[in-house]
Amino acid sequence: MIRRILISSGVLFGIIILQSTLFHYIAVFEVIPNLYLIYLVFTSFYNGGFHGTVCGFATGLVEDAVSISPLGFHSIIKTIIGSLYGSFSGLVILDRFVMPMVFVLIATVLNRLLAFGVVSIFNLSIPVHSVFSRYFLIEIIYNTVLTPPVFFIAHRIRNRLEGRRVL
After folding, report:
1. Which of 4, 80, 137, 143 is 20 to 30 A from 29, comparing alpha carbons?
2. Domain that residue 18 falls in
3. Helices 35-47, 98-122: crossing angle, 10 deg rounding
4. Residue 167 lies in a domain
5. How many domains are contained in the chain?
6. Can you give the CATH number for the domain in which 131 is found?
C-alpha cells in the first residue's frame, strides 16, 4: 500500500512539474490541461479512499509550493477530490471511455467550485476564473478530451508495475 502511494505521488509530482513548466506551450487561450486532476481521479478511483486522500493532500502541498496560492489551498481541494473519488472505488464499474470522461468532467467542475468556496470563505485574493467564463469551458473540454488517453496510459503503467499482462 505504501509503495502504491509513493508511486502515485511520484507520478503526480512529475505531472505537477510538467504542468507548471512545459504545458504553457500547448495552452489554448492560455488554458493548460489539468493532467494532475485527471491522474488524481484515476489513482483515487482504482486504489481507494485512503490512497486518494493521502495522494491528494501530499501532491496538493507540492502544487501549493509551485504556485502563487497560499500553503494549503490546493491541498484541501485535492484532498477532498481524492477522498471523494476513492470512495467510489469498487462501487462503480468504469468502461474505457465514457465514465472516466464523466468522472473527470465532474472533478473539473468540483475543483473550480471548491476553489471558489475556499477563496470566498477565507477572503483570499487569488485570481480564479468564473465558472461561467470561456476559460473554464476550455478547461472542461481539454480535460475531458484528454481523459481517455491518460487513463489508457495510466492503466498500462499500473498493470506493468503490478506484473499483470496487458491486453
Report:
1. 80
2. 2-161
3. 110
4. no
5. 1
6. 1.10.1760
CA gap 40, 55 in Å, rounded: 8
pLDDT tens digits, one per residue of 7-36: 898 899 999 989 888 888 888 888 899 999
**Helix or strand or coil: residue 100?**
helix
Nearest to 33 by CA among 118, 111, 130, 99: 111
- Cell numbers standing for residue 28: 489554448
- Backbone torsions φ then ψ of 28, nearest 5 degrees: -115, 115
Could you tell me if 79 and 56 are in contact, meaning their C-beta atoms sit under 8 angstroms apart? Answer: yes
CA distance 52 to 102: 18
Contacts of 104 (CB under 8 A, 6+ apart): 37, 38, 41, 143, 144, 147
- Cα dihedral value 34, 54, 44, 73, nearest 10: -30
Query: What whole-number distance in Å separates Cα of residue 154 and Cα of residue 57?
Result: 20
- Give the mean pLDDT of the chain: 89
